[in-house]
Amino acid sequence: MKELVINVALQRDDLKIEIDERLPLSGLTAIFGPSGAGKTTLLRLIAGFERGIGEMRFGDEVWQQGRHFTPPYHRRVATVFQQPRLFDHLDVAGNLAYAARRAGQMGAVAGMVERFALDPLLSRRPETLSGGEAQRVALARALLTAPRLVLMDEPVTALDQARRNEILPFIESLRDEANVPILYVSHSLAEVTRLATQILTLAEGRVTGHGPAGTILPHLAATPDQPGEEPGGLITARVAGMSHDGLCELHFSGGTILSPGRVGPDGAEVRLIIRARDVMLSRDRPVGLSALNILPATVTSVVPVGAASAHIGLDCGGTALAARITMRSVAALELVPGASCHAILKSVALAREALPSP
After folding, report:
1. Are residues 256 and 210 in the same domain?
2. In terms of residue numbers, what domain contains 239?
3. One domain for residues 157 and 15
4. Are 59 and 178 within one domain?
5. Which residues contact residue 73 at a Cβ distance below 8 angstroms, ignoring those fewer than 6 apart?
6. Is the separation of the CB atoms in 50 and 18 below 8 Å?
């Protein structure tokens, strides 16, 4: 696995960035933070569209050091923007052929057309495409350049919810099957929860956190841009089978979760979102409840949120979850780091479905 090593500073009138980080390049790394945090500028530095002061290395290659600077066209990095930026004078087939021809990838066009379901669109001009269709073309065109790294700058932000739901499965497929690492800028917890394997958080031009999605997600706060969103724990589980009464059994490091209806074939790996507000806590294992999912847990942190609430970090067999409860409940249950308790999950959402706005 290659690493992207960034030790770069950049100062402008509107922004100051100081990044010193090693990014392992695999899966999809979400770059998360509020507007103005420096997310897009970081992508531009990586792509070579901007030049800061310092060093940058991609594996064994030096992209920036002293006077040396590798220009964008020699980095083999593909960038997908909010707006697709297709060539208006070419139809879809022409846009794909242009990218493939420059990279010597004409033999890959047919497979890319199939991957992104573009066959009905090939003769159409960009102005006739919906936002979701245009982004599918942009994704296919980016891959046809044979990139070693794909940068995505909020590629679904400009789309309505229906078009987002159309494009996100293609990004998931790219993450899981294309074997090309992705750096994905977002300020949406819903997208990050659904897509990320790693998360890098930024605030005011500095890295504030970096690690596996399951570790970082429970501690994320909603950004000022999207205050209705909230942190959610991420559970990676395996489908174990169906019970006699129609419940799907999902095994993970902290135990078994039951979900109504089949969520995948036996043995399939699925990602589950557990919102903090959907977790209740009890010191003793409760009885006489309708809730099916009651998991042993250990309190890892108690962080006040405002005057009346607290964010409770939990460890469920090595999987990080979170609960949002009142300070009165914290006191009544005597919750402190290290305390044993039970997490009662009121609802479970499959991560392949976008989280709705509250």
Report:
1. no
2. 234-350
3. yes
4. yes
5. none
6. no
Which pLDDT tens digit goes with each residue over 181-225? 999 998 888 788 889 999 999 999 999 999 998 888 877 754 545
Q: Which pTM was predicted?
A: 0.80
Residues in the chain: 358
